Amino acid sequence: MKKLFLCLGIFLFFVSCKKNESQPTQSSETVIIEKVNELYTQYGKSNEAIYNQPITDTLFSQDLKKVLDEAINASKADIEKVKKSDHPDEKPLIFEGAIFSSLYEGFTDYKIKSVKIQDKTAEALVAFEYNAASPKESWMDTVHLINTEKGWRIDNVIFDTIGNSKDLKARLTEFVQST
């Protein structure tokens, strides 16, 4: 009986040690899908999120974060300038329309169609739909990501031809230059 308890004890010891092993990390594709979903759930519906919370470096690359911060700071400076001017009822330069999407009105639904990973870069093809007006609009944007030492980060969004800009970085740069 003692041998049975000893064997059972050894067996349970090894089984419990195995549970403490590190769990496998998520696949790159899963992490990329999570980043794209985070972008469009956190910042997709309204530009208010851009003004009301800091831009995190856990979602955006350092390069895109820098351009976003410059654009936000330029907009906030223009808002303050207009408030203090002789004509405070004038409209300041603010982000209008959905800045992370091709269509000005934004989207009512989106779906990640595919993810292509090549070394340290990735592209997520995202299909959008806007059905709050007739006719329904559909388009595809491509989210570019880079794999940094801290993980996958969104580096740019290439817009569909229905938009008025080629990509997010170009749109933000134009916005800063216009202020």
Summarize the entry for a quick read:
The chain is of the alpha+beta class and 179 residues long. It is 40% helix and 22% strand.
Account of the 3D structure:
The chain is elongated and about 95 Å long. With 179 residues, it is of the alpha+beta class. α4 runs parallel beside α5. The chain has a single domain (27-178), classed as Nuclear Transport Factor 2, Chain: A (Roll). The protein contains five helices and four strands, in the order ααααββββα. It has a four-stranded antiparallel beta sheet. The protein has helices spanning 2-19, 28-42, 48-52, 62-83, 168-178, and strands at residues 109-118, 121-130, 137-148, 151-158.
List keywords for this structure.
alpha+beta, 40% helix, 179 residues, 4 strands, four-stranded antiparallel sheet
User: Considering DSSP H and I runs of 4 or more, what fraction of the residues is helical?
Assistant: 25-40%
- Annotated CATH architecture: Roll
Radius of gyration: 23 Å
Arithmetic mean pLDDT: 84
| CATH topology value | Nuclear Transport Factor 2, Chain: A
Q: Count up the helices.
A: 5
Q: Tell me the span between the first and last alpha carbons.
A: 84 Å
Strand residues, percent: 15-25%
Organism: Chryseobacterium cucumeris
Protein name: DUF3828 domain-containing protein
